[in-house]
Amino acid sequence: MQKLNWDDFRVAHVVAKAGSLAKAAQVLQCNHTTVLRHINRLEEALNVKLFIRHQRGYKLTDAGYILSDTLPDIDAQFVALEDKLQSVQQDFSGKIRITTVTSYSSLLAPAMQAFRQQYPKVRIELLATDEVIPAQSGVVHVALRAGPKPQDPDLIVRHVVSLKMAYYASQSYVDALGLPESEEQMNEHQWLMPDKSKYHIPFIHQVIKRLSNESIVYSSNQFLDIQSAVISGMGIGPVSEIEANKHPDLIKLDSSTLFTTDYIGSLWYTYHKDLKENAKVKALCEFLIDHTRHLSV
Fold first, then answer.
1. Which residues lie below 8 Å from residue 159, measured CB to CB, with a gap of 6+?
2. Which of 14 and 259 is assigned the larger pLDDT?
3. Among the CATH numbers 3.40.190.10, 3.40.225.10, 3.40.50.11030, 3.40.120.10, which is that of 163-264?
4. Among 17, 89, 286, 292, which residue's beta carbon has the most beta carbons within 10 A?
5. What is the top-level taxon of the source organism (predicted)?
6. Are 99 and 143 in contact (CB under 8 A)?
């Protein structure tokens, strides 16, 4: 067997995901001839066909599927190794990868700016998503999760900020249509509510079950969308108190205990225990806590 080159495996993995040489070349920022050379060399070294070539692109053989399924785990191990080696040096340079929920990513900007001013050689990559990315995947260094405190024994967890929500309407909506003064009047108004993915939240469920379909004029799977719609004057809906404090023309509903301000959890700074000595990860945590303390309710 010829000597294997790890770069060839990396290129093959990109081709498997992209489906063609041209698309893989774009991802790798090289020409398709270079990509083809890597694929041919790997197949020759392994003496195994990994791809079936045809006019519509590159399809995986059985061996190719095994390669494609295995490489992400190997890649994650290399990322973890890189992180551990960088932790030993304890220098403030290189990248730090963060994920957080979409609705709260904008809250982090002041802390990120302060962190970058203190450590200008550190580059920040932020992935805003509602999906939970496992810490052991190696995709990110840090995850900021909203909700109950994570219980994963492999995580180090720090509290960042408490989160509260209430129901609000804009002054323009109130001027035009008023506010419900009782539960009986709720369906006389226009409601902006999260979709079914959020119905399990008690604060949402207790209102949703009293609304007719016709009175819910706008819905979204993102609280950020709902908040923007409330601010625009479209109707009544849940808004975080952090966001509401930025808009003095928002009116809080208080005509019923249904609308009572409710805790929906907290924002938690989490990272894998293998990174407990990583200077960048620990320093960023302190910056986030310091620069969001004023947001706690």
1. 149, 266, 267, 268, 269, 289
2. 14
3. 3.40.190.10
4. 292
5. Bacteria
6. yes
